[in-house]
Design brief:
The chain has 216 residues and is of the alpha/beta class. The chain has one domain (24-215): Rossmann fold, CATH 3.40.50. The chain contains seven helices and eight strands, in the order βββαββαβαβαααβα. Strand 1 and strand 2 (30-31) form a beta hairpin. The chain is globular and about 40 Å long.
Length: 216
């Protein structure tokens, strides 16, 4: 807003520029121009496919492969609930064999999500929790800081595997490996289940409900 003030015969002008940042409306949902969702996880967990599910269209390459498909940080935007949501897909930054490129990827990721707010989605295959993922939070904290878990949601993929095994998500969360339970608890039990072959809006709505609660 630009204001010009004039006083008597001695006119003087003062320009006041007011910039409005993210604020919250009385519906309990944050209102702002942008939310950054950063997909993180090991290769093959379904990061890119989950990004496409959130976006509602295929923006990121996702296919079965013995080699990592995503090799650079990528971004795409969509509108959800009247807000611009930027989805950032990342390569595997937890692979110790690729230490030389990890710092580059982390730096690029931080550059892409400089605008606030930012929520990290740690993507884990619901029926394949590996030894390499047991210390994934320590690696995440080294990359993004000790408080990153306060901004993290666990996004489990391959929800259809639970359905085939006639197991509810709640039952899975109680019966999963102790190391996986620790990860979920460290993230204050913020988790959501995705089946990326399902194009229905429910799973994305559940994710955004969690994101909204985090940002209030």
């Amino acid at each position: 807003i630009l204001l010009t003030l004039v006083k008597g015969n001695n006119s003087y002008r003062t320009n006041i520029s007011l910039k409005f940042f993210l604020f919250y409306v009385n519906t309990g949902k944050p209102s702002g121009t942008e939310v950054n969702l950063v997909l993180l996880g090991m290769s093959g967990t379904g990061k890119s496919a989950s990004g496409n599910t959130i976006l509602g269209e295929k923006e990121f390459t996702s296919k079965a492969s013995s080699k990592p498909v995503t090799t650079e940080c990528q971004q795409a935007e969509t509108e959800i609930g009247g807000r611009c949501v930027r989805v950032i897909d990342t390569p595997d930054i937890f692979d110790d064999e690729r230490k030389s490129s990890i710092k580059e990827h982390v730096k690029k990721c931080k550059e892409l999500c400089q605008s606030e707010p930012c929520v990290y989605l740690l993507v884990i295959h619901v029926s394949r929790f590996t030894d390499g993922e047991k210390n994934i939070l320590k690696k995440l904290e080294r990359a993004f800081g000790s408080k990153v878990t306060e901004q993290t949601v666990i996004l489990f993929t391959r929800g259809g595997d639970l359905k085939q095994g006639e197991m509810s998500f709640e039952e899975f969360s109680h019966r999963c490996q102790p190391d996986l339970k620790k990860i979920v608890e460290k993230c204050d039990r913020r988790c959501v289940l995705f089946e990326n072959s399902d194009s229905g809006p429910d799973q994305v709505e559940k994710l955004m409900e969690i994101v909204d609660r985090m940002l209030i």
